[in-house]
Specification:
The protein is α+β, with helices and mostly antiparallel strands. The protein folds into 3 domains: about 5-165, 2-Layer Sandwich (Beta-Lactamase); about 180-270, Beta-Lactamase (2-Layer Sandwich); about 275-340, Winged helix-like DNA-binding domain superfamily/Winged helix DNA-binding domain (Arc Repressor Mutant, subunit A, Orthogonal Bundle), CATH 1.10.10.10. The chain is about 40% helix and about 20% strand.
């Protein structure tokens, strides 16, 4: 499949538009009766917005999120798929033809009248940034091996453009409240309280729904579902890029106030330092290039970097030439300007990156 038909230039489109273009490019070759496309936090694989207008019926969504993010079961669960060498999967193949033995098929596909599901993880540089899900109904032609190949072909180019659209478009200067919002839910997932500020943040999440009157976002439902399976008091989090271009962190945890267990979620503007690693990831830098770029941004000289990393200074120069080429700047001053002016980021205080792409905390 030609890559130029997959997605528009990331610098010219919003993330939802890039995601939609990727889905439409695949659907032209691989039609589906039901389909959806979601963005994922690459660190937690929780939903962070998406396209659901042509997706699953609303009544199966709570159970879908429980299977996907709470129980985390099934051969084609997003976490299992993210670990595989291939990016696409067909449920009938993954279950070796025993679809009826799959809880996901029993509880999600079968009640919706669907016969099979094709998934493609949008993966670039080892990180999964989104997921396309295509389903065919009972009576429709089955998916073929060629369909799976087409899905596989779209994964990397679509992920690369989605990542750039998410991370390289800068941050909107629109004035919005910076206070955290609060959401409370029962153990069964039913939301019992949403603060006014939480309503504001939820309204900014990039999602399009099959049912425009949906009471909440799938992004929040996914986080709550994961928190229900976590340890009491231990939060799970997802970083979400809002329609305004800002970033929001949704954290949720189990709590037991007054003898009645509840799920509590906070919605807070993301701290710029927590996004630094994501922004560097957006340029497609290698782990070594990211490490050296962060040290340069911290003001280290090439000689100091070479000494601290036990490499030759010429090697640092070679890596930085690649960094300049990938970020589109000409020197270290322009790199700092790009990082801090375009992305409004303060000095990176806690390098290096953790294995999942976030900054590591220090003991200081």
């Amino acid at each position: 499949m030609p890559t130029d038909e997959n997605v528009p230039a990331a610098a010219e489109a919003e993330p939802l538009d890039v995601l939609n273009a990727a889905a439409q490019a695949l659907l032209r070759h691989v039609p589906a009766d039901v389909w959806c496309a979601v963005m994922l936090d690459p660190a937690t694989l929780l939903d962070t917005g998406g396209l659901h207008e042509h997706g699953f019926p609303g009544e199966v969504m709570p159970r879908l999120f429980e299977i996907e993010h709470g129980e985390q079961i099934g051969v084609d669960n997003i976490r299992a798929l993210a670990r595989r060498p291939t990016s696409s999967s067909l449920l009938s193949v993954s279950t070796r033809g025993e679809l009826t033995q799959s809880v996901y098929f029993q509880d999600i596909l079968s009640p919706a009248g669907l016969a099979d599901e094709l998934r493609v993880a949008l993966r670039a540089d080892g990180h999964t940034w989104g997921l396309l899900v295509l389903c065919r109904a009972n009576g429709s032609a089955p998916f073929t091996a060629r369909d799976v190949e087409r899905a596989e072909a779209i994964s990397s180019p679509a992920a690369t453009d989605l990542r750039r659209a998410l991370l390289l478009k800068g941050i909107d200067d629109t004035e919005v409240p910076d206070a955290p919002g609060l959401v409370m839910a029962r153990p069964d997932g039913r939301i019992t309280y949403v603060s006014r500020i939480a309503e504001f943040w939820l309204s900014q999440i990039s999602e399009r729904h099959r049912d425009p009157s949906a009471s909440t976002t799938h992004t929040l439902t996914a986080v709550l579902s994961r928190a229900r399976r976590g340890l009491s008091g231990q939060p799970v989090s997802a970083r979400v890029r809002l329609g305004t271009g800002r970033w929001l962190t949704i954290s949720a945890w189990r709590d037991a106030p007054a003898g009645e267990e509840a799920i509590i979620a906070s919605l807070t503007p993301s701290r710029p330092a927590s996004l630094a690693a994501l922004v560097l990831n957006g340029y497609g830098l290698s782990p070594r290039e990211r490490q050296i770029a962060q040290l340069v941004i911290l003001g280290r000289t090439y000689a100091e970097i070479a000494t601290s990393l036990h490499i030759q200074e010429q090697t640092v120069n070679d890596h930085m030439r690649k960094v300049f080429a990938k970020t589109g700047v000409g020197n270290r001053v322009e790199l700092c300007t790009e990082m801090f002016t375009r992305h409004h980021l303060p000095v990176i205080a806690n390098p290096p990156l953790s294995t999942d792409g976030r900054l590591m905390a220090t003991g200081a």
